[in-house]
Amino acid sequence: MKSVHPVERTVDVLVVGGGPAGLAAAARLAAAGAGRVEVLERERAAGGVPRHCARGGFGGLTGPAFARRAVRAAVRAGAVLRTGVSATGWAGPLALEVTAPTGLERITARAVVLATGARERPRSARLVPGSRPAGVLSTGELQQSVELFGLRRERIGRRAVVVGSDPIARHAVRTLRRAGVPVAAVVADRPYGPRLPGPVLRGATVLELVGRGRLSGVLVRGADGRTGLLRCDTVVFTGDWLPDHELARSGGVPLDPATRGPSVDGGLRTLVPGVFAAGNLLRGVEPGTVAAAEGRAVADAVLAHLAGAPWPAPGLTLETAGALRRLTPGRLHPAGPAPTLLLRPEVRLVRPILMVRQDARLLYERRLPVLLEPHRSLRHPAVWAPDADAAGGPVVVTLTP
Amino acid sequence: MSVTRTGALPDTSAPDDAYDVTVVGAGVVGCAIARELARHSLRVALMEANGDIGEGSSKANTAILHTGFDAVPGSLEARLVREGGQLLAAYAEETGIPVEPVGALLVAWDEQQLATLPRLADKAVRNGHHGTRPLSAAELYAREPHLGPGALGALEVPGESIVCPWTTPLAYATQAVRSGVDLHLNCPVEKVRPGEGDAPHRLVTRRGVLRTRFLVNACGLYADAFDALLGREDFTVAPRRGQLLVFDKFARPLVRHILLPVPGPLGKGVLVAPTVYGNVLLGPTAEDLTDKTATSSTAEGLAGLRAQGGRILPALLDEEVTAAYAGLRAATGAEDYRIAAHPELRYVTVGGIRSTGLTASLALGRHTVGLLADAGLELGPERPLAPVRMPNLGEAFPRPYRDAGLIARDPAYGTLVCHCERVTLGEIRDALASTVPPASLDGLRRRTRARAGRCQGFSCGATVRALFEEGVR
Fold first, then answer.
1. How big is the A-B interface in CB pairs under 8 Å?
2. Is beta strand B104-108 parallel, antiparallel or unpaired with respect to B258-261?
3. pLDDT digits over B1-30, tens only?
4. Distance between CA A50 and CA A73 in Å, rounded?
5. How far apart are CA B424 and CA B391, in angstroms?
6. pLDDT band at B265; cut points 50, 70, 90
7. Which of B206, B390, B415, B438 fits B444 for a cystine, CB–CB 3.0-4.6 Å?
8. Which of A125, A145, A149 is facing B320, going by the closest CB pair?
9. What is the CA radius of gyration of chain B?
10. Is A347 helix (H, G, I), strand (E, B) or coil?
11. Searching chain B, which residue's CA lies closest to the CA of residue A2?
12. Both ends of chain B: CA-CA distance in Å?
């Protein structure tokens, strides 16, 4: 007879999310002897988004192979990986409410690692006007339909339009083609960007979705201001990633206003003692390999916390200015190890100037000998961090053309 | 007692096989009328042009259970909204339709609106509502701390509630079908050949001819077109479009009541209201159109909504939009319903049911059955309706994913499929096997909330689709 009350359980580390970041964190923590390390994955299989990215670009592996390797590494290291299990809320500062087919649980941990990933902003949140027909997808749904459920042209659509300027738009086109769905056009809002396959309308915007029952077309305004209807029965809105921050936010974990992910310091500690965050929950999207690296990196601070290290003060807040859209981590401790920041520009920048100021002091200024793109992050070791005044105001990081 | 979606309609050519009553239009009003008819030993058909019930105006309203405080005093609408509101509140309790009596505040943003509030309080009294109360600006901001600056005061209207607009017609249809009504979907009526004398009317549809002795027009936006099939031209229906935005559940703590606009010379303004699913609703616009299929949102409409919403509740704009939709209200130019019995035709038109139709639906059902009896339909004795208990979609009430006992009995309720809305495999399985099953993913969404959340299917869309198309194994 199963219990009709939530089962109270205790673990050493609870990792929420079994994607690249969560699995990498669990593997390292379990290997380092962190005690019981448990990973909750709400999907039927662990591995995260790479599971349905049937392409290379994951450290020399395809997405599915990368996902399988991450799962194997975590399990081999001794982490407990539970799939089909959902953390639905908080029962205390380090305790989560969990729903599983085996019943309800309340799991209390000494450390919680949030690694809940990111999602694409859907059509509705983009405020794209028009009707609400079937045939409107995100890349996530498209890839799962094709790679996990084996759907092909007859089940997906006869003619597709892809919306987006980032490499993810390219992946969506390839997925559609693999499924046998012709792509009428890629509507890329930016006038520049990575190479995209097929007919690309650069600098174009989607004005309206048309169709009753099923999508029949997408009304587009081109860069020249002219509008036209692209006939299609499928449209894929790609990119524009948002952190899946529901659990963080509902637990009162403060967010970084620029990333909308949890505010973290160089150790990936949130502002709630004992709660850490890693991977694409921090900011939307970076490659799976980057998320995995953060998962490995978070283990250091988790182990220190388990060993009784005091939770550090918030430290200095890093603010973005100019053409810098976001950076992670968003807080630093001048006395601690200097973190490597991931800087993401708002627009394409040719040899921009990176400037770091605190109050009236210039901490760093350099012209970067690179081309920055809005779909890629720049890794910037914060060599200036020791010069920052721990008692001073926020540190402002600026990118200017 | 069946639901048909395809194939030929049942043979009604023999004199005894004709339906006693056919209700055309399975929106919230038609479903309520069919349910009321099911209390009697009659052969009843409910016909719907679309593939599901509640596919027209019913699925896209503002989801408010009105008190009727601001109806035109003495009008039929005022009476039916008052009666219907009480009936629906009790029915919701009995069947599990989520209702939250959050109350409404009519917020005055300028002196003119402030001066209007006492008149609205008087109007409420004339409509039988004595509970309204003026609030000072300080009281108002204490009640609604997130309200934008500049509000001068408000009129509190207790009893205004939020309700699930999807479960309500589904409960009616489910109960009607279980009590013996035949629901024929995908069945637009193309012609009506009125019966001579006592002969049944013949409804010509894509799925064959259906004979019926009495006929009810509950066609909503198309009530005038259906009237025309019987040679009546009593009124015309002009669609009035209302666009609405649904904000992320993180916006829900920003608002406690239904915030109603004060009607004024500049039109009606928009409301902000919580939803029973735990979101926040902003809208509707009011655009008089001619196209009865124009359920599209527009760039101007959405931008206007955001501008107004930002003044009412500035923090709303910091949250993501989960959905944008547009519904068409059946405007007839009259400040009242257009309900007419045509005894000589054995026909009742239930038209011009404006945005209050959801609230008034059960009273409209009773009223319509009364008109049919007056027109000669012999009702016979009443019998109890088959019981219904609807799956709960309301955030304020227990849901399966948190029900340890339920999960212990059936692990499918512990398996989350749609994570944003916390919809379980068990609920999806139940909906697919229900009395009136969904015909589309949208229909499944209205029965379970699956895919209605902030990710709009990014995470679960492919899985939900597979369950819908291939069944739950």
1. 128
2. parallel
3. 699 999 999 999 998 999 999 999 999 999
4. 15
5. 12
6. confident
7. B438
8. A125
9. 22
10. coil
11. B408
12. 27
